[in-house]
Structures are given as structure tokens and as C-alpha cells.
Batch of 3 targets.
Target 1
Amino acid sequence: MIFIVISFLKCKQRQLSRKKKGSKNREKAKHELGHVHDHVSNQRKDHLHKVCRSLVDRYDLIYMGNLQVNEMMKNLRLANSIANAS
């Protein structure tokens, strides 16, 4: 589901880039793009909350480890997947 919204986000970004700078339509497009960014952010938070809630319900003890996310993001092939997962 998030991939559909991400493709919609790309479309809105493209539409914004085609608008004339300083125009009223550009301001409208920027406002719409902000709403899409908020929607993607809320979807990611909701999914993370649901996964964490299911893990807490299922297991009595949970160990957490430190991951070097910034180092993992340098891998260009996996960066998008890692960003979606975190």
C-alpha cells in the first residue's frame, strides 16, 4: 500500500517541479505535496506501531540491538527498503 502512495508522491513532486516559481499554482502544488508527505509519514508510523504491538503481544522478552542505520543507508540498492522499514 505504501508503494502506491510513494508513486503518487513522485507524481506530485514532478507536478510541482513543472510549475512556474512564485505562482499561485506552485503554492497549491507545494501544499498538496506536503499533505502527501504527511500521509506517507503517518502510514510508516502506523505500520511500525502495529508491528511493535504484535511483537509485544506475542513475546514475553524482547532484546534490542544497535544497528548502524546511517552506514546501511549508503548501500544504494537497499536504501529505500531500509528507509521504509525504519
Target 2
Amino acid sequence: MSRKLRLIRRLERHLRKHPNDKQAKELLEALKEGRYEWRGKSVVIKPKEAAAQSS
């Protein structure tokens, strides 16, 4: 299983217990939309405007 899929599953499980976590929701949406890049072990979210222009 890829890092992306593992992180998506982990965030979905986290959001079941903490449904109002805005940062987790934003990260989950970015992963599903492809608006992210890996910087080492961490994930950086690209803004919605930048992702739209690069596509």
C-alpha cells in the first residue's frame, strides 16, 4: 500500500473520532484531489489556485 493510500485511510479513521478537525479535512481533500507533494516524510498541501494553474 502506498504512503498516500495509507495516509488517506488514517485520516478517514481520525475524522470519525474528530469530525471537526479542519486541518485533517483539508489534507484529506488535497490528497484525493492530487494537490500535494512529499517533502521528505511530510506532506505539503498546494493551494487550490496553484493546482488549477499547473493542470
Target 3
Amino acid sequence: MSKSHQASANATGHTHKTPSRKIHRKYTQIVFALYMAAIMALLMCMVIVGVNTGIGAGYIGRVLKTYMLAMPVAFFCVLGVRPVVMKLVAATVDLG
């Protein structure tokens, strides 16, 4: 049993589960899309801003400004593209 779900006895001898701080597994696809989009959008913004305007004064500000647009776009793109990617993986990888 994980630490977050360990049962503990109270004064009357009844046990109760310690509440978990983790997000429920039914949200796995959304959490995956959020992390994937957040990381990829940041990396792409850093590279593209660096290539287009250089890594000099104001670089971080330009990256963050670009990221504010790129991250939500990336999030919805990951959500939309995931089913297609899963079909492509299933068609090209022996999952058996």
C-alpha cells in the first residue's frame, strides 16, 4: 500500500485512509498533455527565440512572452494529436 493510502487507526480503533495529494488516475491523459505541452513549449520557445533574436538582453522576457501563447496552443495540440499518435505507434510497434 502506498504511503498516501496507508490505513491508520484512530482512538476508537476504526481505520481510515490518509487522503492522497495525487490527482485521480482518470485525469492521466490530461495531466500527461499538460506536462508534455509545458516542457516542449518551453524548450521550443527557448530555441526559436534564441535563433530569431539572439540570447542577449531581454531573452528570458521574450521567451516568457512567447511561451504565454505557445503553451496553451501546445496543450490543445497534444490533446488532439494523441489519438493519432497512439494509432501510429500501434501500427508500427509490436505491442504483443
